[in-house]
Amino acid sequence: MRLASILLPALLASALSGRAQSADDIIRSHIDAMGGADRMKALQSLYTEGITVMPNGNEVTNKAWRVQGRLVRREIDFGMGNMKMVVTDKEGWSTNPRSGGSFEAMPPERAEAMRGEMDLPGPLFDYVAKGHKAEALPKEDVNGSACHVVKLTLKLGRDITYYFDPKTFYILRTKTKGSGGMMRSGGGPGGGQRNPDQEVLTDFSDYRKTAEGYVFAYSTTVVGMGAAMNMEKIEVNAKVDEKFFKPEQ
C-alpha cells in the first residue's frame, strides 16, 4: 500500500506531462510568450520598417503603418522605383509606376486580402470570437526543432498552419497558400499576385522584446526566395497621421 501511494502520484504526473497539448494550450502559451493577452488587447497601431537584400544585391525598403481594424499602408522602395498601397476598412488604392506613380483603385479582392493585416494581435488571438477554428496536429521538425503544430482555419475558409518552437512558443514557420501569410510577427500579405494553390512557407527568427513588453520577429524569410526582410524599426501604439488614411503622395 505504501509503495502504491508513492508510485501513483509519480505515474499520474508522468502521464500528464506526456500528454499531447491541445491547440488552446499551445496558442495560450504563444500569446503569453508574445507579451500576454492584456498587451494584445492594448495593441492599437504598429509601424514597421525593414530592409530586404535580394539575391542580386539590390535592397528593398518596406515601411508599413497599421491601425487596428482601420488601416494598412505600405510604402515599398526598390531602388529604381517605389510603390504605395493604402487599404482602409472600406476602400483600397495603390500607385502605378507605369502611370507616373499616381494612385488607382485597388481590386476589391486584393484590398480584402490585405485587410487581414488590420488584425494587429494576429488571427490566433481570441480566434474563437473571430469565427476561426484551431486544430492541433502532430509535431513536425523545423530546422532541427520538434515544433508544436496548429492549423487555423479562418472564418472565410483559408488555412494557416503554424509551427511553434517547443521551448519559447515563438512561431518558427507558417504555411499558407497563395497570398496568405502570418499577420503579426513580421509577415503577412503584401498584396502581390500569387498562384492561389501555391504553398508558401515563411520562417521567422531573431525575436526581440520591445520596451513596451511586446515580442516581435525581426527577421522574416519566404522559403525558397533566398532573401530575408530584417526589421530596422518597430514602433508600438504611436499616433498615425490621418493623411496616411488617404491616397496621397
Break the fold down into its secondary structure elements and pairings.
Blueprint: H1 2-18, H2 23-33, H3 37-42, E1 45-53, E2 59-67, E3 71-77, E4 82-88, E5 92-96, E6 102-105, H4 108-115, E7 133-142, E8 145-153, E9 159-164, E10 171-177, E11 199-209, E12 215-222, E13 228-236
Antiparallel strand pairs: 1-2, 1-13, 2-3, 3-4, 4-5, 5-6, 7-8, 8-9, 9-10, 10-11, 11-12, 12-13
What this model shows, in words?
- The chain has 249 residues and is an alpha+beta fold.
- The chain has a single domain, classed as Lipoprotein localisation LolA/LolB/LppX (outer membrane lipoprotein receptor (LolB), chain A, Clam), CATH 2.50.20.
- It has a 13-stranded antiparallel sheet, covered by helices on one side.
- Strand 12 (215-222) and strand 13 form a beta hairpin.
- It contains four helices and 13 strands.
- It has helices at residues 2-18, 23-33, 37-42, 108-115; strands at residues 45-53, 59-67, 71-77, 82-88, 92-96, 102-105, 133-142, 145-153, 159-164, 171-177, 199-209, 215-222, 228-236.
List key phrases describing it.
alpha+beta, outer membrane lipoprotein receptor (LolB), chain A, 249 residues
Count of separate DSSP helical elements = 4
Give the CA-based shape. globular
CATH domain class name: Mainly Beta
Share of residues in helices: 10-25%
Kindly report the spatial arrangement of strands forming the biggest sheet.
6-5-4-3-2-1-13-12-11-10-9-8-7
Order of helices and strands: HHHEEEEEEHEEEEEEE
Structural class: alpha+beta
Number of domains: 1
- CATH T-level fold name: outer membrane lipoprotein receptor (LolB), chain A
Strand content: 35-45%
End-to-end gap: 80 Å
What value does the Rg take, in angstroms? Answer: 20 Å
- What's the CATH superfamily, by name? Lipoprotein localisation LolA/LolB/LppX
CATH architecture label name: Clam
**Major sheet details:** 13 strands, antiparallel
